[in-house]
Amino acid sequence: MPRRLAVPAAIVIAAAIGIWYFTRVSDDTAEVRRRLDALSAAVNASTTDGRGPAARANEFGSFFTDDVEIDLGTGTSPIRGRATLISMAERLQPRTAAFKLKFEDVSVVVNPEGTQADVHLTAEFIRRDLVSGGESLDAREFTLVVQRSSHGWQIRRVTAVDTLK
């Protein structure tokens, strides 16, 4: 009788472990996606809410690690460090009101430890003409390395993908 119960019990335990593993991985993936959605929402937020450019730039900076590196490709110098990024965001903010950022085709692969994720996405920059109301679209592919920290998931590296060779 105990042997009859051992096989079904082993199957149930294996199924429970499998469900736990895949649920945990998909939860991490969903967390990374939510964090990226929050980043685009922060970039797209209006500056009419009474918060100044410095506060918005600091909020924007919270999505990145202290040692973030952003490589936009040929012809540009890498951007290194959250402090540099925050400074750039604060100065550029008034000029970006006509733009909207949207992430499409997001794929997230979380490492087995759940501490880091590789992300591939298309960033769409939509420019709104404030006079005519028309829009123009510029899209670029990027790979990101995102790591879990005490502040949640933060972007450690951004690399532009050269799609036309």
Q: Any descriptors?
A:
single chain, Nuclear Transport Factor 2, Chain: A, 165 residues, 3 helices, alpha+beta, elongated, six-stranded mixed beta sheet
What does this structure look like?
The protein is an alpha+beta fold and 165 residues long. Helices cover 38% and strands 36% of the residues. The relative contact order is 0.15. Strands 2-1-6-5-4-3 form a six-stranded mixed β-sheet. The protein has one domain: Nuclear Transport Factor 2, Chain: A, CATH 3.10.450. The chain is built from three helices and six strands. α2 runs antiparallel to α3.
Quick structural gist:
The protein has 165 residues and is an alpha+beta fold. 38% of the residues lie in helices and 36% in strands.
What is the fold's blueprint, element by element?
Blueprint: H1 2-44, H2 53-61, E1 64-71, E2 79-80, H3 82-92, E3 99-110, E4 116-128, E5 135-149, E6 152-160
Parallel strand pairs: 1-6
Antiparallel strand pairs: 1-2, 3-4, 4-5, 5-6
Helix pairs in contact: 2-3
